[in-house]
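Subject: two folds for Thursday's group meeting

Dear M.,

Sorry for the delay on this. The cluster queue was jammed most of the week, so I only got both jobs back this morning. I'm pasting them in the order they finished. Each block is the input sequence followed by the predicted structure tokens. Could you check whether the formatting survives your parser before we put anything on slides? The first protein is the one we discussed after the seminar.
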Amino acid sequence: MSEQSKFIVTYEINYVHRVQVGVIASNKEAAILSAKQAFDHGSIWDDTQEMPLLFDQYIEIGDGSLTFSAEPVADFPEPDESVNDIRRKENAFKACNYLLKDIDSGLNFAMEVFAGLPSVQAGNETPNFG
């Protein structure tokens, strides 16, 4: 068996990130300034009533050429903050999904447990879970 080495492989593809937002302004320059300020503050993607997000896509440009390169390394570095942000969002989404599943299961279980209690059926009182 041949000896294995570590590599950081990078791929790059040419694209444009096109974002369109709705802006109400007195003129074209004021609209652009408003959008630039929102971009600088990181709020252009907030999708608010005052500045609705209308379009947000990555569009390949040119021939869409995809290039790969590899660099040998002794060890892998810590992930960049962009990866940590993706992981945080994915974990938050998973946590919400698990919570929703547990709430649903918990609700079904509670309904089965308390289905025979007269006070719950009649709606006279809330059951004491403690």
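Second protein, same layout:
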Amino acid sequence: MATGMFRTSDGSVQVDYDGVSIPIPRSKYDKNGYKPNFDELPLEADYLAAQEKQRAADAKKHL
């Protein structure tokens, strides 16, 4: 099942399709009923910052 990752500044949504992520327009995202709801998706910058923070925490665990 496709899952929304984040929304972009142009109003599209980055969607993960079983390990492959692609941008799609919000209209397609809403039409297909993907989760989470568009308004619950983080902005791209917030998503990327959280990913980086998680990578740093994971790297620190392995030291």
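Two things I noticed about the second structure. The longest helix spans residues 44-61. The beta strands are 3-7, 12-17, 20-25.

Cheers,
T.
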